[in-house]
Automatic annotation (TrEMBL):
Residue ranges of every copy of the Glycosyl transferase family domain listed in the record: 221-375
GO molecular function term, any single one: glycosyltransferase activity
Domain Glycosyltransferase subfamily 4-like N-terminal: 32-211
Pfam families on file: Glyco_transf_4, Glycos_transf_1
UniProt keywords, alphabetically: Glycosyltransferase, Transferase
Name under which the protein is recorded: D-inositol 3-phosphate glycosyltransferase
Highest taxon in the source lineage: Bacteria
Organism: Microbacterium radiodurans
GO biological process terms, semicolon-separated: carbohydrate derivative biosynthetic process
InterPro entries found in the cross-reference section: Glyco_trans_1, Glyco_trans_4-like_N, Glycosyltransferase_grp1
Upper lineage: Bacteria, Bacillati, Actinomycetota, Actinomycetes, Micrococcales
Spans traversing the lipid bilayer: none
Amino acid sequence: MTESATTPSASRDTSRRPLRIVMGADTFAPDVNGAARFAERLSAGLAARGHEVHVVTPSVTHSQSGVFTENIEGADLTIHRLPGWRWYPHDWLRFVLPWRSKHYARRVLDSVKPDVVHSQSHIVIGRGLTREAVKRGIPVVATNHVMAENVIDFTTLPPIIDKPLIKLCWDDAKRTFDMSRAVTTPTRKAAEFLENTIDITGVIPISCGIDKRNYTPDLSPREHRRILFVGRLTTEKHVEVTLQAVAKLAPELDVHFDIVGGGDQRRNLEQAAQQLGITERVTFHGRTDEAELRAAYTRADVFSIASIAELQSIATMEAMASGLPIVAADAVALPHLVQSGVNGYLFEPGNADDLADKLRRVLTAGPEEYLRMQQASLDGVEIHDIERTLDTFEKLYRGEPLDA
């Protein structure tokens, strides 16, 4: 990370007063995904602490660009919606024209004059903001939510160029991160992945954080039949593996699988459920509002996630805060949330038989064993409290040392 990025302008005293923060996010409300949810909660939490937060993100349609006051997570934020263009191979993705990102960044920075820029994505908006902020002596904090390998799925380019394209993406990410005061990721595993992939050091793991007070665990004794997944229906989530496991369990345990979320794979997953003969045992709820989402967590008996590309998984933390045992793929960051045999089980990625076995263990657990797993999830989510996350980012913004 460059010296120019680590030294804020001498004229800025950011030690005590509320900060003026520009948050650059390639994805934000109304998008429903982990990176967007984190940016929303962080921005709203900072605003609730008295900071002035400006979010820079693509507009929902190209004609709806402008500067707006929007209520996000109960806080009024200033949202700079840059002209956004739909990426049609993806079901919801919008982007700002890359060759315009620096122009938009200059316009926002000249208008807002922030104390710090927080980039939530190094791809387009954060890339432009980082380069223009460094020119002005404005410190930048960067958070990585992206694995370049996942982005490739939606390029529609020939597979033969995937490898060199991934390298180009990571090389550009390194150049952006090297300009930042600090680089963060949601977990230690994700930090190690980033350090090994682009050869940087000092990546800081900071949980995305959740407010567990928003969730309602049901600890009463009851029959256990409902399996839940929450998230985008995309290829890296591997929801089809859970469908296969449900098919193995359905006649035996009378289970029902609730799927909350939308995505480009929904039609394929509906067809898979039909082919497996479990259509009546699977409900695709699509995207829901917060109240419906929280009710789905409370109603469920176990949360199942087969994804192999989670840098943290906010949905899994929400399930833990709802007192659910978790059955998760033993991949990337999920083992940081799930202790096998404690608050649920890990299964071999892609192995539907193993997943079915682990789901069966949870669903057939005796009342005392099931309650023990519920309590372990509630205890395990304590370290992911959003207030800790806000404390840490405030210190990074001010250039203060972090607690050991």
